[in-house]
Amino acid sequence: MAGFDSDHIRNLALMGHAGSGKSSLAEALLIKAGVIADGDHRGRASSSAGGSEQQASHSIESSILHLEHHSTRINLLDTPGYSDLFGRAMAVLPAVESIALVINARHGIEPVTRKAYEQMLERNKCGMIVINQIDAADADPAKILAEIQQTFGGHCLPINLPSSDKQGVVDCYFHPDYEAATDLSSVTEAHDRLVEQVIEVDEQLMELYLEQEQSIEPPQLHDPFEQALRDGHLIPVCFTSAETGAGLELLLDVIAEQMPLPKEGNPPLFLKGEGEAVVPVLVTSDASQHAIAHVFKVTIDPFKGKLAVFRIHQGTIKTGSQMFIGDGRKPFKVNHLFKLLGDELREVSHAGPGEICAVAKVDELHFDAVIHDSHDEDHYHLKALAFPASMASVAISPAKHGDEQKLSDILHRIVEEDPSLLVEHRERQNETVLCGLGELHLNAVLEKMQSVYNLEIHSAAPSIPYRETIQIKAEGHHRHKKQSGGSGQFGEVFLRIEPLAPGQSFEFTSEVVGGAIPGQFIPAVEKGVREVMESGAVAGYPMQDIRVVVYDGKHHSVDSKEIAFATAGKKAFIHAVQAARPVILEPYAEAKITAPGQCTGDITGQLSSERAMITGSAALDNGLVEITAKVPLVSMTEYSNHLKSITSGEGEYSMSFSHYDAVPSEIQEQLIQAAKS
After folding, report:
1. Alpha-carbon span 374 to 352, nearest angstrom
2. 3-state helix, strand, coil in the chain (%, to 5)
3. What pLDDT sits at residue 499?
């Protein structure tokens, strides 16, 4: 496969909501470029080639594709479009200079498109917008363009327009046909607005255009066009139809000729060092410099092994190159270097800046690793991505006894592949909990564990981490006496307890005087108390926010032992707790819900029915509202489904721990009875 220098490479991520047509657009572009044959939309080179993805009819993983147009290699990264899988879409962003937001001409701007736009701004990427499916019967391109400009800004300007019959497009930039009939404004108006927007970043061109009334041709506009993209001063809008091919040639022209080269895009933020010593470093698209690449995707196949996909930012990597990982001292050898086309690997001999490649079977490689060929680049890393918080969780265990280690190994591999997943081992509940961005995210993982790794598992809602505490002061006493021939056991303890402020956890002090309890036995009393703090005195939940003061007791010169005082302290504490109005506490989450304003009443009503406390609401842009509430965690286990139902999938939420509060008396009784049974 022929190599390309960085002046002939474009890297572009396709992002947008599920159903916008990203994958069909990517495949149509591959067909247009002659990479795959027409009619092979679901072949090995497809962007959704995985079996589970074909069954689900949507992308579950990001796919890396490439094509050639006008002697330019275009690397396309097709990303999942569901909110639950947005972490996987975000992971590819360090590999590209540009993002294309794909919008369905029938549905307009949808939630994941808004998220992608925010990421584009946050990561300082150049952007373009593709309005797809313009030929659909109920498509309204004019309405969608107006919505885009109202939502994202007036700097979103069309570079082509749908023809009057919506079966084709009219070029408004490269070779404008000013007389052509369009479904929107005139070609002249679109061309002039585009030129005027671009020349605002170039005073000399603006003077030529305004004062000398000279026409400006596309070659003159290239540099200011690229500058406008880099500054976020322009987002070009292209109309297409992946189904009929309308606009695809012009879209490829825009990508190949106007979107930034690797050296023209805003450079990724590379850092060196950690903590306060961290400093930014410049990485250049120079093929002759030390090689530096960043791993942005890892896949692990039970049969093929680990495949690490990386973007080369500087230097050249060849077959046989010796590469270091992070600050590692031992290099690995690049035995084979691959380009990717969906799930197909194509071997290459070398690759330079801007290229996206992969190596196989290097176990030490991991997501976010920086690989390099010189120790001068030790401790280099990219600014970390801030993945969305995990909003759904499931407790999992192997269905077959003896598969515990297999489950642990598989979870390790899956988390390596998907950095937006989290595995927690909750020792108190003896549970392994898998946390993800939503139910679809978790279901995709569980399905893969079964279909790919052949592991049957049991899944259930995770246990709620209830706690126990007391409400008033009380005293407790216990005498432990045991005599069964020979040396016996004796220990007597008097103690008092009182509630602490929330978050104070546990305090233990001794006010024993006169040697009533010898000093060497006080730690044994504390040990007995701590055992109850761990195991609970009401329904088996850990206790918190309690002060214990041991103030008196008795001992025996022969029979007193540590075990006797541990037992006496434990039972004296239980006795005191029963008199201190014990209560079971439940965790509350602080939830922040963003949804269409017309759903406010339904959302607050549903939250109130779940014992939530609404703490505020605020109107946002574009008809959205943000509602904040403190909600019992037990009520949030199925909340993603409730919110999707109320908002038709347009609502989103995040949550964080807020505080513990007492459960209602009827729920406390249920929990106590459940513990007894």
Report:
1. 16
2. 30, 30, 40
3. 96
The whole-angstrom separation of Cα 308 and Cα 302 is 15
The reported pLDDT for the residue numbered 214 is 67
Alpha-carbon torsion 288, 292, 296, 298, what sign?
A: positive
Whether residue 48 contacts residue 402, with contact meaning beta carbons closer than 8 Å, is answered with no
Whether the model clears a pTM of 0.85, i.e. scores above it, the answer is no
pLDDT in tens, 539-586: 989 999 999 999 999 998 888 899 999 999 999 999 999 999 999 999
Task: Count other Cβ atoms within 10 Å, centred on residue 500.
Answer: 16
How do strand 169-171 and strand 160-162 relate by DSSP bridges?
Answer: antiparallel
108 secondary structure, DSSP code? B
Read off the tokens for 287. 């093929």
CA distances for 319 relative to 75, 139, 288, angstroms: 21, 49, 16
Token pair 């540590």 is at which residue? Answer: 562
Q: How many CB atoms lie within 10 A of CB 134?
A: 27
C-beta atoms surrounding 151 within 10 Å: 15
DSSP letter string over 129-155?
A: EEEE-TTSTT--HHHHHHHHHHHH-TT
Give the DSSP per-residue string, 178-210. TT--BSSS-HHHHHHHHHHHHHTT-HHHHHHHH
According to the model, what pLDDT value does residue 286 have?
Answer: 92
- Low-confidence residues of the chain, pLDDT below 50? 41-56
Report residue 315 as tokens: 């230097």
Alpha-carbon gap, residue 88 to 66, rounded angstroms: 19
User: Which two tokens mark 418?
Assistant: 């998907």
| Of 239, 203, 238, 198, residue with least CA distance to 217 | 198
- State how far the Cα of 345 lies from the Cα of 363, in Å rounded to an integer: 18
Pairing label, strands 317-318, 370-372: unpaired
Per-position DSSP letters for 366-377, written without gaps between them: -TT-EEESSGGG
Joined together, the tokens standing for residue 60 give 């579950």
CA distances from 138 to 104, 134, 143, 148, 445 (A): 11, 9, 11, 18, 36
Helix residue ranges per DSSP H, 270-322: none
Q: In 10 A of CB 410, how many CB atoms?
A: 22
Helix 439-451 × helix 404-417 angle, to 10°: 120
* Amino acid identity, position 247: G
Q: How far apart are the first and last CA of the chain?
A: 68
Report the candidate in 45, 46, 79 with the shortest Cα–Cα distance to residue 62.
79
For 71, 74, 251, 254, the CA distances from 33, given in Å and listed in that order, are 11, 10, 12, 14
**Side chain identity, residue 551:** Y
Q: Which of 204, 192, 668 is nearest to 469 (CA)?
A: 668
Q: What is the pLDDT of residue 40?
A: 59
**Amino acid (one-letter) located at 346:** R
> Half-sphere exposure of 288 toward its Cβ, with a 13 Å CA cutoff?
0
d(CA 21, CA 39): 17
**178's tokens:** 């000013």
- Triad 118, 20, 445: Cα angle to 5°: 80
Residue 173 CB neighbour total at 10 angstroms: 25
Contact status, residue 320 vs residue 308, Cβ threshold 8 Å: no
